[in-house]
What we know:
Pfam families: SET. With 633 residues, the protein is an alpha+beta fold. Helices cover 43% and strands 14% of the residues. It has 18 helices and 22 strands. The strands form seven sheets. Strands 14-15-19-18-17-22 form a six-stranded mixed β-sheet. A four-stranded mixed β-sheet has the order 1-2-12-9, with no helix packed on it. The protein has a three-stranded antiparallel β-sheet with strand order 3-11-10. A hairpin with a 2-residue loop joins β10 (275-280) and β11 (283-288).
Amino acid sequence: RAPREGAPTSAGMPSALAEGRAEVRVSGSRGRHLVATQRLRAGDIVLVAEPYAAVLDDGARHLRCDHTFATAADAGVGSLLRCARSKVARYASREAQAAAWREGYKEECAALVKCAPKVPPPTVRLAARVLWRRRRERARRETAYAEAAAESVGLGEGYDSVRALVHHWDAVAEEDRARFAHAAAAASAFLNARLAGDGISGGDAVRVPPYEPEPEPETDDFDDRDPEETPLAVAKLIARLSFNCHALCDDESRPYGVGVYPPAATMNHACFPNCAQSFRGKTLFVRCLRDVLPEEELTIAYVELAVTRAERRAELMKQYAFDIDENSAENEKSTFYRKGVPSASGEYVAPPTEVGSSVTLHDHGSFPDSAPPWRMDERDVTHACVATVRGANAGGVVVVGPARVGKTGAADAERDEGERRVEVHVWGPLAVNGFVANREHVAAVAAELARVVADAERLADEDEAPAADGSADRSKRDLCLERLGRFKRLVDGSDETTGFALGPGHALRHRAHAVALRTQIRCGDFASARKTAVKFLLPAYRRAYPFGHPPLAQHLALLAKIETFLGGAFLPAAAKHGAEAAAMLRVCQGQSPMFRAVEQRTRETEHELSVSKMGAALEDSDAENAEGGFVGG
């Protein structure tokens, strides 16, 4: 059997891969990948791993123990202890603090004091923790759990397991290499306690502004430099971390840290994954979402699945240098349109057209069989890209952009204008019963819809961010609601859009409904929130995610919670959705706190329904007895 969740993670408990459930294979097109060696069932643990190194996000540093990543509630303590010297790390106990000190925080503490009062971004700190651990390995061979796990999958021991991960250095764009090199310079300075506080930004973990490190001591012997700590080697390490790290998330998929798990990094992405990951503190668990046959590849989802395939591919290329077009397992489930080839009707794609100052129209043909020059899956064709004219399906629309923007100022006007640029791809006749929609007008409307959704998402994020005094900024919420109102007026084919609308399952609608749900809950409008969750979002989640995948399970749990709060006639639905959510959470998270909470709430709802039915039956019986009088009276 695989190790149980919560079991101690030490050298005596190697990765679950050592139990013979899976093994790493290597192929030309797939690279390293994980394959099942025996029949596995839904909920089976196929991998348990501790990170080679991990760091907490900036927002989680004061909420979680820096050594175990547990919250105060998880650790059963009233509050966390703060490091008196660095004033950065917090610990659940003196024992955790002592263990962290032995495992490298001694060096990091000195580096943090040097760059106080600011703290380097997580990527810089993670790279430094990796290299500090490597230094300790060179001084004395460690026998840690993470090394045993990595060695069991053929990645080598210690730092060798990190160095075995791909960095894609020669394939990434020049600007990406420059960003990696910039972060590497900051990491090297932090590693040697030479990074001054005025050389640190609390923003993007890669875009570290220039700093003024102390000069290195002069030496004529350059051969003594550690080959893994040269500027190029550290830059490639940053690249490895960028492409192979895992975001540590709680049961509700809220991120709290990032770590490098060499065994788990061998798992490939799939848009139809058969596994999912979860975390307990720093420990990573991978479970099967369904039954898996021997020799079947074990996969997870790297990115959001409730978007178009083109968006998934772009995000995977950007974040992981992973191209799903080269993934044969994915090709079998995708419709393939070859780039640069005319459609079956012989119609060639028109050159891009500028619509206004910040919209580019890409017209891929107006025939019924016209299609964009990229691969689409079934969900794209039937829902995520569908455009309608006067209520009838009439083609497809995909919008790329805009980038999310923050508060704008006069100095940032040019930059923000570029971030607001939108690319609109259209295809198909966009006509019905003799009425033909103007394609440039369609592009302008689609671009406005995308901008409105991006604004609403930004405003919702700002509304949920606590103010310095703990108060809520109602203006952000009101602006978000105004943006959502404009989206609703445009998206359904009003006079302003001359009959053009997005299909009911279009990806932009999904994003707008997701923002609406968050805002309705914060406003306390649970009746509207329930309608949004059931009518609009639940069908989209069911189309995008397999049974047991965390986002689907979490949405069902939220829906059941809303229905329980509404009570009355909604309790039967709450019991149904709660039971379904609990079944999925058991598969993807095991006996997690969230699973136990959902299961307990569902049992209480079912008990309340049972009591209500018994009470109604007794009332009916009393009414019948009253009508018939006493027998023998």
